[in-house]
Design a protein that fits this description.
The chain is of the alpha+beta class and 247 residues long. The protein has a single domain, classed as Muramoyl-pentapeptide Carboxypeptidase, domain 2 (2-Layer Sandwich), CATH 3.30.1380.10. The chain has 7 helices and 7 strands; from the N terminus they run αααβαββαβαβαββ. The strands form 2 sheets. Strands 2-4-5-7-6 form a 5-stranded mixed sheet. The chain has a two-stranded antiparallel ribbon with strand order 1-3. Helix 5 packs across helix 7. It is globular and about 45 Å long. The structure holds zinc ion.
Length: 247
């Protein structure tokens, strides 16, 4: 009886020890599930890349699509199209990761340094966007003021546009007058009937990004396109496997 009890306890213990425990940890780090909130996904990406050497990117060509947070872990990610909290109310990306062409990413990194000196950090809403997603958006909102015509291809499809805002040292969004993807006059950069602090925040955002090679879009305070180069359109899905560093 004593032996039977011992064997039983060993069996239970072994089950809970689960030889796959390590494996499960690896899987959860390697696959960024859309079931997580973008904030959780962002934390899990940072953890997974803790020992990453960003110099790895120095060997890549300027046109390589690279992940922003591997360059600078201070970027805040809030990738709306990896959630249903966006203007389409549909999940458009498999994962909440953000990629840009290497040359664009490096100039954005320089802008980020300037923002950090003022006590702010960049929060990314969107970067590279697969071409097929552009068609989905266009089907839902065929208005070229707000969605790039997919037949021409958006700058996001080329990995050289970024949607972003700024957060303060506590991670709180700076007030910009409207939410992201607000389709209306109040989001236009020429609209000035706004509180002073909103106008000042928009000015800082625009001024520093423009100094670093980006240009603003008249209808969206959050959208900036790269001014120095144009790259080809891509339709590669955003990879969910964190071992995929670039494409
Ligand atoms: Zn945009």
């Amino acid at each position: 009886m004593k032996n039977t009890l011992y064997l039983f306890l060993c069996f239970v213990f072994a089950c809970h020890q689960s030889p796959n425990a390590d494996q499960q940890t690896v899987v959860s780090e390697a696959t960024i599930s859309t079931e997580k909130t973008t904030e959780e996904a962002s934390k899990s990406i940072s953890t997974a890349y803790k020992n990453e050497d960003s110099l790895y990117y120095e060997t890549l060509h300027d046109t390589a699509m690279v992940e922003l947070i591997r360059y600078d872990k201070d970027f805040v990610l809030d990738i709306k199209y990896a959630t249903t909290d966006n203007f389409t109310k549909q999940l458009l990306y498999d994962c909440g990761r953000s990629f840009l062409r290497k040359k664009v990413a490096k100039d954005l990194l320089n802008a980020h340094q300037a923002f950090k000196k003022l006590g702010f950090r960049i929060k990314i809403f969107d970067g590279y966007r697969p071409h097929s997603v552009q068609f989905k958006m266009w089907d839902l909102t065929p208005d070229k003021r707000y969605v790039g015509n997919p037949y021409k291809g958006s700058m996001h499809n080329r990995g050289c546009a970024v949607d972003l805002t700024l957060v303060d040292k506590n991670g709180k969004d700076l007030t910009m007058g409207t939410v992201y993807d607000f389709f209306g006059q109040k989001a236009h950069i020429t609209y000035t009937k706004l509180p002073k602090d909103v106008l000042e925040n928009r000015r800082i955002l625009k001024e520093i990004l423009e100094k670093n090679g980006f240009r603003a879009l008249e209808t969206e305070w959050w959208h900036f396109s790269y001014n120095r180069n144009v790259y080809s359109i891509l339709n590669t899905p955003i990879p969910c496997d964190v071992n995929v560093k670039q494409f």
